[in-house]
């Protein structure tokens, strides 16, 4: 750092300036109208300080800029620009084309908003963030007890993300639990560094833990794995729920026996379901 003017330099740029010298102007394929000029000072007041292609905030004060179009690129996207088109991706079946401009959109892969340079499918209108192109397929997250799997359409109406607790667009992709039909999560939320350990589990056998379906409290009382909040008591006076009601959460096919467990809580479970169900 040069203290008088508060400029920062990479170590390699200080010790090897000739090898890493950048041209003062470049003609870039994603901005053919005008050449981009190398700037080392502060961003112009009208600029948002982000790379037009990848959206990364540019902190090193070394970037290329077109003042006529307010078009800015970081060094990485100048030296290694994203591919103009992509094919044979897990994220989508058709060819995707980069749209290098500011454009508000909803990513079909994660359901979240974007503001620039998506990849778009002109065949079906599919749009995707650049960093959503290669998400993991099967992962463990610290916000749920089971593995979650990547899906292209969540399909769970009126659902909320299990990580951020915000509404999820059920027509878009994300992560869901194959054991808990209502559990979903945004792709970006599920793959956050504080949520996911970075390990892809596709092809890795799952370690299955056998758990007893219930714990006996006394002769007429159990604690069932699906309802640990309250005890369940055997009710044998012949009072049955109507035919449309089934075992809470488990959806068994047998009629259930009703027992009031407190002033406001009701919970039912058939004897068959209590004995037959187990957790895998």
TrEMBL record:
UniProt-listed InterPro entries: C1-like_sf, DC1, Vacuole_Formation_Reg
Keywords tagged on the record: Repeat
Domain DC1 span(s) in chain numbering: 29-78, 91-132, 142-190
Pfam families registered for this protein in UniProt: C1_2 (PF03107)
SUPFAM superfamilies in the cross-refs: Cysteine-rich domain (SSF57889)
Domain of life: Eukaryota
Keyword Repeat set for record: yes
Protein name: Cysteine/Histidine-rich C1 domain family protein
Species, as recorded: Arabidopsis thaliana (Mouse-ear cress)
